[in-house]
Amino acid sequence: MAGILVYALHDDEGNFNKNSLGALSEAAKLAGELGTEAAAVIVGDISDEGAQGLGNYGVTKVYRAKNVTEGLAQPIVDVMAKVITENDISYALFGGGLLGFEIGAGLTARLGAGVTMEVTKVKVDGGKLISERPILQDSQIADVGYVSEPGIIIGRLNAFDIKETGGSAEIVDLDVELSEWSTKAQMITRGEQRGADIDIEAADVLIGGGRGLGSAEGFDGAEALAGAFDNSAVAATRAVVDAGWWPYAGQIGQTGKTVAPKLYLAVGVSGAIQHKVGMQNSENIVAINKDPNAPIFEFSDLGIVGDLNKIMPKLTEALKARKG
Question: Scanning 26, 35, 144, 266, which has the fewest C-beta atoms within 10 Å of its C-beta?
Answer without folding.
Answer: 35
